[in-house]
Amino acid sequence: MDRILIKGGLLHTMQDEGEPVFTGDILVENGKIVEVAASIEAPGAKIINASGLHVLPGLIDAHSHIGLFDFNHDKSVDDANEMTDPVSAAMDARYGMNPKARELKVAYEHGITSMLFTPGSGDVFCGQPFVAKTYGDNIFDMTVKAPAAVKIALGGNPKNTFGDLKRLPMTRMGVAHVLWDTFRRAKKYLDNKNNGVEQDYDAHLEAILPALRGEIPCKIHCTQYDMLTAIEVAKAFGVKFSLEHAWGASDYLEEIVESGCDICYGPIATYRSPGERRKVDVEAVKMLDDRGVNVAIITDSPILSEESLYHHMGEAVREGLEPERVLRMVTINPARQLGLEQRLGNLAPGRDADIILVKGRLGLDTDAKVQLTMIDGSIVYQI
Fold first, then answer.
1. What are the distances in angstroms from CA 178 to CA 52, 87, 188, 261, 338?
2. Smaller CB count within 10 Å for the chain: N or C?
3. In angstroms, rounded to a whole number, what is the distance separating the alpha carbons of residues 332 and 57?
4. Is residue 52 exposed (0-12), middle (13-18) or buried (19+ Cβ within 10 Å)?
5. What sign has the CA pseudo-torsion 176, 177, 178, 183?
């Protein structure tokens, strides 16, 4: 693979908090960043002139259903929701993922180089999300981490799924019961396993064990007061977790801070409607960030389009968040949530060479546009 030297760009490394943007170079070799400095000499390297352009780590959307939902045909396709039982934790989203989904091209053309692809949210325990790059032909080759989380959903989605079937859980009480009961059974299953107690194999409980061991987080779809249920149960079983969508978070700031959870907020541009989307409190993004909560901004694509990530960033800026803080919410913050900060979300030696060159400032300039996208050291898009 060629050595590539990105020369003279305005570097946003997303390393230390408050680190200033500086003019510098990045040397890429064998798909990895090997050096970041004010000036680099690399004889024989292919030169990319980044003068006047902002150079960022590839953007990360930490909550997507691309390739699992397909709205491009007369009849929509849903391979994200098993919905035959409220506990479908063993479902591996990679096996429902179409790596040829056209939205992936839209994603990397807009600088989104990695995504967390998640099942759900029709069940309470929806399945196993995974992190993958947005460019490639084979989803298993594109995968960075699998499983990357346990996906859980509270509120209207599972309630309506099973309410239509007139079976548990058809109320929020029922959803909470399934959540508590399944975690209790998984904890007992884990204890038996650790103590050598013979028991029948249970694929769904097995899928929850990495979360109980602290190896991966739970990503919990919930809004408004369902966030309190999520916090209570997650604390009881000691699992790391993020609140997904989190509309209404401004009502529960102290509870969220005290819980130590992460937030995946969005989509911000969703319409306000009765029920779960009643309180789309964009200002919560700044409130949470000010209190030290690790916040990522998400699109929920293809529910909203991938390029709408820019709009969400701009809305957060409009609510008073510093533009550089917003950039962290689509780079290093989601990388840390997923335990991938040593590979993704920042510009440093040893990281994957997922790099974008942007004319203008994302989240601030309405005419900002990606000029080049590099994934694993290969240029996959260039104007």
1. 54, 8, 15, 21, 25
2. C
3. 9
4. exposed
5. positive
Domain check: are 156 and 15 in the same one? no
pLDDT in tens, 335-383: 999 999 999 999 999 999 999 999 999 999 999 999 999 999 999 999 9
Same domain for 95 and 176?
A: yes
Claim to verify: residue 36 and residue 102 sit in the same structural domain: no
207 and 275 in one domain?
yes
Tell me, what CATH number does 50's domain have?
Answer: 2.30.40.10
Which domain CATH number covers 106?
3.20.20.140
Instruction: Domain of residue 363: give its range.
Output: 1-57+347-383
Q: What is the full DSSP assignment across 164-214?
A: TTT-S-SSHHHHHHHHHHHHHHHHHHHHHHHTT------HHHHHHHHHHTT
Q: What pLDDT is attached to residue 271?
A: 66
Kind of pairing between the strands at 218-222 and 4-11? unpaired
Q: How far apart are CA 200 and CA 216, in angstroms?
A: 24
Strand ranges (E), 38-109: 46-49, 54-57, 59-64, 69-70, 77-78
Phi, psi of 225 (to 5 degrees): -70, -15
Between vectors from CA 344 to CA 107 and to CA 5, what angle results, nearest 5°?
85
Buried b (16+ CB within 10 A) or exposed e, 157-196: bbbebbeeeeebbbebebbbebbeebbeebbebbeeeeee
Helix 203-212 vs helix 172-194: crossing angle, to nearest 10: 80
Stretches in the chain below the pLDDT threshold 50: none
Same domain, 139 and 188: yes
- Please give the tally of structural domains in the chain: 2
Q: Which two tokens stand for residue 294?
A: 């690790």
Strands, DSSP E only, in 74-118? 77-78, 112-117
Strand partners, 374: 355, 379
* Residues 16 and 122 occupy one common structural domain: no
Contacts of 63 (CB under 8 A, 6+ apart): 116, 118, 219, 244, 264, 266, 296, 298, 299, 300
Do 326 and 370 fall into the same domain? Answer: no
Residues 208, 351 within the same domain:
no
Strand, helix or coil for residue 9: strand
Length of the chain equals 383
